[in-house]
Amino acid sequence: MGWELFEQGGLMMYPLTLCSVLALAISLERGLSLRRKRIIRPEIVGVVENIQGPEDVGLAQSVCGQYEGPFAQVMRAGLDNRHLPQDEIRESILDQGRQEMGALQKGLVVLETVASVSPLLGLLGTVLGMIKVFQEISEVGIGQGNLLAGGIAEAILTTAAGLFIAIPSLVFYNYFSNKAEALILEIEKYSNTLLKKLRGFQTAAETPRTERAD
């Protein structure tokens, strides 16, 4: 039954099938990759929150070096540049964060494109199907209904297939976009926490020098 419907849908069923495979593959990959525990590693969160002084930075660097991913890379950017002025530390964190955003949003442009293109492909299939119907009408007249069924089926099936692919693709796109945005905001929160700690260490280190100079 499924193959018969596919054949009735005509030529446009092939790109629609490709769109459905892409949407499914990206949705599965993003569902696995955007799990919070996979991005916001509890080990890194723990070591960053427990930094009490410059002597703890080495441990934090070591823990961040054990993991890959956006969160570890952003934290490492701040820790590795801790000796720089605050503005430069912040800038290094922001630069690394901008680079890592691509990893969190990977594939979402394709998913959005599938959601936008699938209905258009379905509409194109409808137009081609109706052209086929009118050609058959011009050749055999309207009395041969069974001869017109193929073109009508092609027109209906491609529209239905396009919508069937586009609707879940749009839902998944919005879901994963919001999830990626939430993870970015959480990484930003921990980045600010780390930045405040590093600022405190620099201030504490500068205070004795100021006192000695006085």
Q: What does this molecule look like?
A:
The chain is mostly helical. The chain has 9 helices and no strands. The longest helix is centred in the last third of the chain and has 69 residues, at 145-213. It is rod-shaped. 26% of the residues are buried. The mean pLDDT is 83.
Can you describe this structure in just a few lines?
With 214 residues, the chain is mainly alpha-helical. It has helices at residues 2-9, 13-33, 36-39, 42-49, 57-65, 70-80, 86-104, 108-140, 145-213. 26% of the residues are buried.
Key structural traits:
9 helices, mainly alpha, about 210 residues, single chain
Approximate strand percentage: under 5%
Shape: rod-shaped
Structural class: mainly alpha
Largest sheet: none
Cα radius of gyration in angstroms: 28 Å
The percentage helix is over 70%
Number of helices: 9
Mean pLDDT: 83
What's the N-to-C terminus distance? Answer: 90 Å
Topology:
Blueprint: H1 2-9, H2 13-33, H3 36-39, H4 42-49, H5 57-65, H6 70-80, H7 86-104, H8 108-140, H9 145-213
Helix pairs in contact: 1-9, 2-8, 2-9, 4-5, 5-6, 6-7, 6-9, 7-9, 8-9
